[in-house]
Amino acid sequence: MGEVALPALVGEVMKRSSLVWLTYEGSERARPVWHAWQNGVAYVVSGGPEQPLPGILNTDRVVVTARAKDTRERVVSWVAETETLVPWTSEWRVAVDALAPERLNAATIDALGEVWAAESTITMLTPTGELVEYPGSYPDDSLAAPPPATPATTRGPRPWVAHRRPRRAPRL
Questions:
Q1: For residue 92, what is the domain's CATH number?
Q2: Which among 44, 55, 109, 148 has the fewest CB atoms less than 10 Å away?
Q3: Domain containing 37: what range?
Q4: Which pLDDT tens digit goes with each residue over 71-105?
């Protein structure tokens, strides 16, 4: 694939994908995040009532892995420089305008800016031009990771139900 086609691939995949994975130093695993892509950069909102991204404020580079929307297969992984946007600046307002329509299940889009300014952080991800994976350069191993530790447990046996038909042994 030509050098000119790779940045175009990143832009096209990011426009079509609503979910990407971020890997960065200080994070124990890749984290799925929703984002907005506009003017060649990705915007991510985290903290407060939004998606948790612990350690994102302490890193200056992340690897963004994007998938194809229809097949959900990994298409490209690229390196981005991070910049935390200061609330109410012009860059921050551009990011809010891009992120607000992408926010699913928002009570009101008008109040998102105030909530994000008070409780959340908006991070701008700018491509460096460095690609980690792209078509024709995928690794041979599966990249599968064990699930993260959780206090959740499986539930016990199913409860007895009064109207359930009893199981009978089949007649021979």
A1: 2.30.110.10
A2: 148
A3: 5-133
A4: 888 889 999 999 999 999 999 999 999 999 888 88
